[in-house]
Amino acid sequence: MKTLLRRLLFILLGLAGLTALFYAEEDWRGRRAWDNCKAELEAKGAVLDWDKYIPPAVPDDQNFFKAPKMAKWFVKGVVQTNGVISFQATNEWSGLATNGLTTAVITNATVAANYLKWSDQFQPDFDLMREALKRPCARMDGDYSKPYEQPIPNFINVRGIAQLLAQRAKCDLLIGQPDNALQELTLLHDMCRLMEAAPTGKPMTLVAAMINVAVTGLYVDTLGGGVQSHVWQEPQLAALQKQLADINLTPLVLQSLQEEPAAVCRDLEIMPVFEFLNFGRTPKWPGKAGSWLWPRGWTYQNMVNVALLELTPLDGLDLTNDTIAPRKIDGALLEVNSFLGHKSPYRLLAAIAIPNFTKAEQTTVHNQTMVNEAQIACALERYRLAHGEYPGTLDALVPQFIEKLPHDIIGGAPLIYRPKADGKFLLYSVGWNEKDDGGQQETPQAKNGAADFTKGDWVWKN
Prior knowledge:
The chain has helices at residues 2-43, 70-74, 109-119, 123-132, 155-174, 178-191, 206-228, 234-245, 249-270, 273-278, 296-311, 326-341, 348-353, 357-387, and strands at residues 75-81, 84-88, 152-153, 317-318, 323-324, 416-419, 425-429, 446-447, 450-451, 458-459.
C-alpha cells in the first residue's frame, strides 16, 4: 500500500512539474512574442502604449463638456456595480430617438409648420448648445487609464438631437425659410465637434468617430434636399460650401482604428480573461470557474494577433493623397477572417476584440464622398442661379463658385459629371467596386443593421 501511495505521489509530483513547466513555457513564449511584436510595430510608427492616448486636462471655461447641461446630455458614463460594468445616460433627450417624431415624414407645409411649432420648445436648449460650442475644447471627465471604462459620447442623445435639427431644417425648407434651415444645419454641423476630442483628438474611439460619420451623413442628406428643391439661395449655398469644406472624416476614423490595438491590448493586460470574454456580451460566456486555468502567455499571444491584424487594413488608406483602395481593404478582411477562422487559444480573444473595420471604412468613405459631391452640388446650384443652367463641365465652376474641385477618394480620379437634357445633372463616384457603372446606383440593402455600399456608383441625388 505504501509503495502504491509513493508511486501515486510521484506521478502527481511529475504532473505538477509538467504543468508548471507548461505554464512557464507558454508565459515566456507569449511575453517574448508580444515584446518583439510591439518593438517591431513601434519602430514602424505604431503607437501601442495606451497612456499616450490619455487626454490632458483642459480649463473648465474652455471645455464644451463643462458648459451647463452638456455633460449630462452628451456623456455616457460608466458605472460598475458588484463587478458588472454598465453605461448610464440621461433620459432627458433619449425619448426623441424612439418616439418617431424625429423621423416622421413631413408631407406638406401645414404639417411642417405644426412640427416647427411643437419643436420650438427646444430652442432654449439649442441656444445652450450653441453657446457651449463656442468653447474650443471637448474633454469628457472620466477614468482614461482603463480603456473599457473611459467615457464615451451618448449616441442616443446625439442621434435624437441631430434628427430633430434635421427635421426642423426640412420643415424650414418646405415652407420657404432657408435662413432658418441654415441655422438648424449649422448647429447640426457644429455638433460633430463634441465627438472630435479637441484640442488633441485623444482618445479618438471608433464609437465616437462613427457617430461623427453618421451625423455628417444626416447633415448632407438634409442639405441635399434643399439643393434638389432649389430652395437654397446664394448666401446659404456659400455658407454651406464653407461648412462642407471643413469636413474630413477619413483621418478621424483612421486615427480611431490606429488607436484600437492600444486600447484592446491594454484591456487584455488588465482585465481577467473571463471579464474580457463577457464584456458587453449577452448571453454571458460560460466557464468562469475554469478561467484561472488560462495561461498568461496565451493572452500575450492574442495581443500580438490583435496588434498585427487591426493594423493590416490601414494600408488601404492614403491620407497624403486623400485616396482609398477598396481592393486592399477587402483583401485585408479576407486575410483577417481566414486567420481567425482557424481556432486556437492564441486567436480566441482576438476574434472577439477585432471590430468590423471594413464596414466602418465603407461607411466613412461613402459619407465623405457625399460631402465632396455636396460641395460640387452647391457650386453647381450657385452657377445655375447665376447663369440659368448648369455648366458643360465642372471646370467652369473654378474659381468663382468653388476654389478647388474635390476628387473621387476611390482611386483619386475626378468625380464624374455631365449635364442632362431634362435640365438636371449627373454627379457620381465609381463607388466601392471601383468600376464606372454609368451612374447606376443600387439601393443600399441593410445587412445586420448597416447599409451595403459595395455595389453600383455613389450618385448625388438630383
